[in-house]
Amino acid sequence: MGVAYSDQDIARFLSEPKLLPPNYRSRLKPRPKKGHSERELDVLGDLGTHFRLILRQSDANALDFSVILAVCPPTSPKVFRVRRHNGKSHEHTNAIEGDRFYGFHVHQATQRYQELGYREDTYAEQTDRYGDIWGALSCLIEECGFTEPDSPQPQLLEVP
Fold this sequence. Notes:
By secondary structure, the chain is an alpha+beta fold. Helix content is 18%, strand content 32%.
């Protein structure tokens, strides 16, 4: 399978500044699909990297969700998942380390897992930094180089 991106590339993707559009929250409100809701938002990084935010949530279980930061490589139609914040809906096992847990968890792309033929973001760590999909989005925004747009400044009235 090979390595799509090294750990250094992944670190660079996470730290690359990314400015969110002013209406990003409304543009990320998930829309119904078959059995779940989903929404995507493309964001251009300051270094020209094409990123995609993806939100998915099960209709049957509000804790079954993923908030994903992906890179859209210019030479491939397939996205590369750099970071994925998952809900508390299933048990996760790290295949190499063998540790297993049930809870909210954050997946991180790694070179090591790619080298062994696993999906890029197979490795995960349990977290208590969020408890729902919107908290997971806020956490991802805070940790992955995003800047929220400045809120509009109030117009000052001129005194004649």
